Amino acid sequence: QAKAAGRNNYQFFTERMNLAAARHFELESSLRGALAREEFALYFQPIMCTETRRPRALEVLLRWRRDGALVGPDEFIPILEESGMIMEVGEWVIRSACVQAMQWQREGLEVVPLAINLSARQFTHQGLVDSIRAIVDETGIAPGLVEFEITETALMQHGGQTLEILRQINAIGMCLSIDDFGTGYSSLAYLKRFPVRKIKIDRAFVRELEASTEDRAIVAAVMALANSLQLSVVAEGVETEGQYALLRSFGCQYAQGYLFARPLPAEQVASLLAG
Ligand code: C2E
Ligand code: MG
Ligand code: MG
Ligand code: MG
Questions:
Q1: Ligand 2 center–CA 114 separation, angstroms
Q2: Which of 53, 99, 150, 226 has the largest CB neighbor count within 10 A?
Q3: Locate the EAL domain: which residues (predicted)?
């Protein structure tokens, strides 16, 4: 009987594997033409200054409109990364974000810096720096209006050349932040060797801030260390007034989350910047 159950489990498992593989294959082939079909769009989520509760930056979040349905980045970014398509799509993201910022500027809006996510694959390539320089030339964007977010895990995986590329980006005048901080196994002391200005505390530590004394202790400790290293801190995934009040009491300078705004299409951001 145990054997039969084992067999069933195995069958169930392989069916699920086949389904996942089929889905993956299907997504990968339709992603190949997605740029040309103009199926990608940028959404923007404000990062608020906790003191003024006004947007201080906008995080740029990629969306894929596939047959009318919006596919989230957690499903398709890994496929772009594996297949190498992330290089081309990532460059499209940077260029489109800069074009959008210049558009807002022409409309007379007060533009705040855009925080653009970078995959590990992108910042191990010298080509990234060249394309950033080209985009700055083409669009005329002020480098101070562009920041990049790199996850802690991605930084940990890469060595020598990465540091050099990040330095070059920094030399162009663009800041770097560490995304999803606390989910990897690094230390702030280690990350300090990179030219980083800001860390984003992962929402895993914010979610139960009100209920969990451990999470409060972790956030307070990260804040203390970040302050002593002169790094600013952004809290991700802030959904309640209670979380917001606690973060303010810890001296956290920036906060991002559904409490303030969801990621929005460009048209809706305009009114937020104007308001
Ligand atoms: P991330 O960079 O950590 O972005 C924050 C994610 O948290 C976004 O998910 C955002 O919609 C979500 N979020 C914001 N506030 C809240 C909140 O209050 N509660 C909850 N539950 N979630 C919140 P999204 O847009 O699905 O993006 C997921 C990840 O995909 C991003 O995580 C980032 O790592 C990656 N990503 C998105 N756009 C790009 C891109 O253009 N390039 C690259 N390489 N990665 C991207
Ligand atoms: Mg991010
Ligand atoms: Mg994050
Ligand atoms: Mg994330």
A1: 11
A2: 150
A3: 24-275
